Amino acid sequence: MFASFKKILPVIALIISLALPAAASDWDRAVKLYNEGNYRAALSEFQDLISDRPDAASAWYYIGLCEFKLKRYERVEGPLARAIDLMGIQSPASAEIAGAYYTIGISHFLRSDYARAVEPLRRYIDLMTKARRDLDPSARAALGRSYYALERYDEALPLLASTDKSKENNANLYYAAAIYFKREDDDRAISTLKEALKANHEDAAALDLLSESLMRKARKTNAALFWIEAAQAGEQLKKIRDDLRTASILGRAYLGAKQFDKAVAPFEKMAKAEEGNGQNWLLYGIALSRSGQLRRAMEALEITIQLMPSSVPALTELAYVYESDKQYQQALKIYEKAYAVTADPAIKESIERVRALASQP
Q1: Residue 139 and residue 124: Cα distance in Å, rounded?
Q2: Distance from chain centroid for Cα 106
Q3: In terms of pLDDT, which residue wins out, 115 or 168?
């Protein structure tokens, strides 16, 4: 998703007045090496040039670019800051000043130093806007994602949720949706994620978040449609990323949509992958119970209770399974155990119902 940030703005031919090194042949050789992609050799040449002309803004500028191209991002700011200072005196209107701020900001961003990325990226955008020059979309994206990482969401959203149809912005939509999700604004999160998926329908992170947002919307509205949509998003996600996280999404979505038979397989995968996780066994047992697989449900729920002896949901579900299997004495015993934990009146009613059934000849 961040690969496009590793490009750098084309180096515009620098004005001779920017303290061009006296030895034109040395300068030409250094620039030629840079343009050929031989950044280490070019860096050495530019460093030799500034030893003779420490006020050569253009050489400092190229040194910063060489460090960037060599992916030594921690070394980028020093020479480019020096270039900015010199250009500010020698040629304040130079486009390279904006380019230097861009490169500094992107370098910090690529190092995940988001706090330090913000100011140079802002300076780049301000300078380019005032000069009415086209912005590199990656600068807006990096600034927006830096704000996101710093939890400065109000500043991030205008940069991430624009109507720009570029490929870069389609990637940004995920981050905008994540902000809406954090704010529990599921309507905007869902619509933004669907927009992002139009451009890349195999974006696993977007499908994951879309499923979660749809399930939360379903819980809030009690609308079956959202559970079904969440299951569909989970099915698409499984084609890309078939792991336990996806199994959890699918199982919960199927359970909410009351597609209990479909919920069995993902919950079984979770339970058997993490055998000591009682919650997984509980969900597996519920899926089996509600899909009518009573014997298997008993086994799964018995394991659940071994792992979580006081789990009221596990006890009541197991009691329900035994009741459904007409094993009333066993069901009564487990209902009573659950009632001893919680004193829930609904469980008391179940005890009375099963006791009556057990007393019948």
Answers
A1: 8
A2: 19
A3: 115
If we measure between CA atoms, which residue out of 277, 276, 348 comes closest to residue 319? 348
Q: How far apart are CA 255 and CA 267, in angstroms?
A: 10
- 131, pLDDT greater than 80: yes
Q: How confident is the model at residue 60 (pLDDT cuts 50, 70, 90)?
A: very high
Task: Report CA-CA distances (Å) from 88 to 10, 21, 57, 271.
Answer: 20, 18, 10, 64
152 SS3 class:
coil
With a cut of 90, say whether residue 21 has pLDDT above it.
Answer: no
The burial class, CB within 10 Å (0-12 / 13-18 / 19+), for 275 is exposed
Q: Which letter does DSSP use for residue 15 in this model?
A: P
pLDDT at 244: 97
Which of 330, 269, 264 lies closest to 297 in space, CA to CA?
264
DSSP state of 74: G
Sign (positive or negative) of CA dihedral 247, 250, 256, 257: negative
CB atoms within 10 A of CB 11: 15
Against a cut of 0.85, is the pTM above it? no
The 3-state secondary structure of 106-131 reads HHHHHCCCHHHHHHHHHHHHHHHHHC
Task: Name all domains of the chain by residue range, CATH numbers in brackets.
Answer: 12-152 (1.25.40.10)
Report the C-alpha gap between 359 and 34 in whole angstroms: 92
For residue 359, name the pLDDT band (cuts at 50, 70, 90): confident
Residues 132-163 as b/e (b if ≥16 CB within 10 A, e otherwise) read: eeeebbbbbbbbbbbbbbeeebebbbebbbbe
Q: In the prediction, which pLDDT does 238 show?
A: 97
Q: How far apart are CA 87 and CA 189, in angstroms?
A: 44
pLDDT given for residue 166 in this prediction: 61
Model confidence over 242-259: pLDDT tens digits? Answer: 999 999 999 999 999 999
Helices 186-199 & 167-182, crossing angle to 10 degrees? 160
In angstroms, rounded to a whole number, what is the distance separating the alpha carbons of residues 340 and 315? Answer: 11
Neighbours of 128 (CB within 10 A): 19
